[in-house]
Specification:
With about 170 residues, the chain is mostly helical. About 70% of the residues lie in helices and about 0% in strands.
Length: about 170
């Protein structure tokens, strides 16, 4: 600690040390007073018990539906093509989200095209409606899938006719 002192004012070095000691004591007392005043100004901390909410019964948290089967039946009646699509996905063993998703893996695309053709063939829906069922696809994508499956079926039919003709010879 550097204390600037006028040496000419003091007669001896001992007086300088006594003066420094007195100053330190004054600063120390002033610091204690400030802490006491500061502590007195602060309000005493209030200790409150935390609020613990009681858990509500399940029937109050969310509505309990005892007629889920009725809702499912109504949904299937209102959306037969959609219900057919979901059922076929389960039969095939491929997730519905994969079929209507954007993945372009060959296995998924082949199943998707087959299901698009089935929906097109069995239900009186427009191409844009079928496209919306399959993840918002454009009607031209649906038309491409239908034509591709029909071309594949025609090739397979011709192959079967050819095999039958050869077997009858």
């Amino acid at each position: 600690m550097n204390i600037h002192v006028e040496i000419n004012r003091y007669r001896s070095e001992a007086e300088i040390h006594l003066e420094a000691k007195a100053r330190r004591k004054r600063f120390e007392i002033a610091g204690r007073r400030a802490l006491v005043m500061k502590a007195a100004a602060l309000p005493a901390p209030v200790t409150e018990k935390p609020f613990i909410a009681q858990k509500a019964p399940m029937w109050e948290l969310r509505p309990v539906e005892f007629d889920a089967h009725v809702r499912e039946w109504n949904w299937r009646a209102a959306n037969p093509a959609h219900a057919y699509l979901k059922d076929r996905c389960i039969e095939i063993g491929m997730a519905y989200s994969k079929v209507v998703g954007g993945r372009v893996l060959h296995e998924i695309v082949a199943v998707r095209h087959q299901l698009i053709w089935e929906i097109y063939d069995k239900f009186p829906l427009s191409l844009p409606q079928i496209g919306r069922m399959f993840g918002g696809r454009d009607h031209t994508s649906i038309l491409y899938a239908v034509r591709k499956v029909e071309a594949k079926m025609k090739i397979e039919e011709e192959a079967v006719v050819k095999m039958v003709a050869e077997a009858l010879r």
